[in-house]
Specification:
CATH superfamily: q2cbj1_9rhob like domain
CATH architecture: Sandwich
Order of helices and strands: EHEHEHHEHEEEEEEEEEE
CATH topology: Jelly Rolls
Number of strands: 14
Helix content: 10-25%
Distance between the termini: 12 Å
CATH class: Mainly Beta
Largest sheet: 8 strands, mixed
Number of helices: 5
Structural class: alpha+beta
Length: 253
């Protein structure tokens, strides 16, 4: 676990984002809220450069159309600056409280793919993978390209977080990802590059295939209370996991 500190790198010019009373109410009702822009042009380009370096390492023969790079901050200075000192952190604190830890980060790039089934990341809750307690943890999903229903934006089931953790299953025995059966399409969240949406770790969400002719790049960050634990792993505190950082306030001794 590390504690976030400042560097000499030029900071994002966007002011800290605090949730209005209306946005707090929206989050409580729907389980997600669009934050608007959290990246200025310069930092957006830096994070795109980070993603390009990661993508350059993909083996030529790799048939996958969706690529994931987790815990990438060590090799990605632009992403690290956003994760540890971005304007969205004030909004995160509005939900979690004063003491906040970043415990997971991931790039997800959907390459152009005409196969809707293969390109879809099915309905799931982030806490379906690791059920963090208390369940106040949130994900901040940042678009690195303009995203819409054609190239794989995020979709949500409003209010689904109120049901708590749902049973997840693997769609195929060889699959690593989990899913929850859901009726209906949900609500799409189109965004411009540099904008972000924040949602509860219990909110059902998905993304469909990228049917455009260009990559759809995204970067997401998972935050929890600085003293949160992983109950299924013997009560391990999230801040002790690889590349975890206390980004606001402090953790208990």
């Amino acid at each position: 676990m590390s504690t976030a500190s400042s560097t000499s790198t030029p900071r994002n010019s966007i002011a800290p984002i605090r949730l209005t009373d209306a946005q707090r109410a929206d989050f409580a009702r729907d389980g997600y809220v669009v934050l608007g822009r959290i990246l200025d042009d310069a930092q957006l380009q830096r994070i795109r450069d980070d993603e390009a370096r990661l993508r350059s390492t993909i083996p030529y023969q790799d048939p996958a159309t969706t690529h994931f790079w987790g815990q990438a901050l060590g090799a990605c200075p632009g992403a690290r600056d956003l994760a540890l000192d971005g304007p969205h952190l004030s909004a995160v604190s509005d939900i979690i409280g004063d003491d906040v830890a970043l415990w997971w980060n991931q790039f997800v790039t959907k390459l152009p793919d005409g196969d809707q089934v293969r390109g879809e990341f099915t309905w799931h809750q982030d806490n379906g993978y690791k059920d963090v307690a208390p369940g106040t943890n949130v994900t901040v999903w940042c678009a690195l390209d303009d995203v819409d229903t054609h190239n794989g934006c995020v979709w949500f089931q409003p209010g689904s977080h109120k049901a708590g953790l749902l049973p997840h299953h693997r769609p195929k025995a060889e699959s690593w990802h989990l899913q929850v059966p859901v009726e209906g399409d949900g609500v799409a969240a189109p965004m411009r590059a540099g904008e972000a949406v924040m949602f509860s770790a219990y909110t059902l969400h998905r993304s469909k295939a990228n049917l455009s002719q260009a990559p759809r790049r995204a970067f997401f960050l998972e935050y929890a209370h600085a003293d949160a634990v992983l109950p299924g792993e013997g009560g391990v505190r999230v801040r002790t996991t690889p590349e975890a950082w206390v980004v606001r306030g402090k953790a208990s001794p």
